[in-house]
Specification:
The protein is α/β, with parallel strands linked by helices and 369 residues long. Helix content is 30%, strand content 20%. It contains eleven helices and 16 strands. The protein is globular.
Length: 369
Amino acid sequence: MKKLMKNYKYDYLLVGAGLFSAIFAHEATKKGKRCLVVEKRNHIGGNLYCENIAGINMHKYGAHIFHTNDKHIWDYMNELCDFNHYINSPLARYKNELYNLPFNMNTFYQLWGVTAPQEAKSKIDEQRYKIDNPRNFEEQALSLIGKDIYKKLIKGYTEKQWGMEAKLLPSFIINRIPIRFTYDNNYFNNLYQGIPQGGYNRIFNKCFDGCDIYINTDFFENKDIVKSADKTVFTGMIDQYYNYCFGQLEYRSLKFEHELLDIENYQGNAVVNYTDPHVPYTRILEHKHFEFGKQLHTIITKEYPQKWEIELEPYYPVNTDENQDKLAKYQALAKQEENVFFGGRLGAYKYYDMDQIVTESLKLFNNIN
């Protein structure tokens, strides 16, 4: 007996208008597929959305620097938008002291006055704690890097980020610490790196061109919309999709305070991390430096980690054994779906870099087309 064919208005319903959906939509449109995009925020672009204020592209949901070693992905993204040559070289501020990141010879000179790699290695070895089986994050960090770097550059920042004492965090969070014995402040060890010229919105406008888009639309309040499409790509929280039937997965959230300042230059760098535990925010961004801006004013953003609750935006999955057990149950349900596919950080409950999101989106599209 032949299966009856349904006449759908759309080939795909894309829930969420972030990067995963954008790449998927771009590929689908090129193949003549029709896409409907549903987004609960008042704009497309997800966490990459840039708000142009006084001629400066402000990264509204935190800094995003595209970086990859995959030339195919880099070329693909540059077909969507030209990228500049921004190199991420953040600073760390502990009280009134400034240090280069990632940990490299500049950092070690600032800490100890050492100028030769062997001196730095000896100093680190001297400072390491001899702990055979680290039981928590603090013991693991001390055994890897020693007391000075841990106290000044890791402990306070980490405790703010996760909202708990380092002694209570699992050791696997910090299985390794990148250490460079060269004078290299390039944070990402990737071949390709940059920021879209003119901001990320250009990518989303191009990718979603030809799609029907509903913004300010909560998928869960309009679930009948799935009937208009043959297949659904869901990039929201997988546990919410299944009405938290196995319990809520944990996330960390963020709060952003943006400020337009009538000065030309606030901190001289795009990203400064604040590692002092008595400073409530984890970093300050100065957005004009992402695009080498010459404006006579500037915009800064203070970033505050906070506990996630239902009404807040989820940003980072909390990778504990309990959450992974719950996730496995949700993923078992997802495998039973015929025409619903999950993607992105929230759909996969996994921290992805942007190039990984692009790769996963392309993979999904190719697998189901």
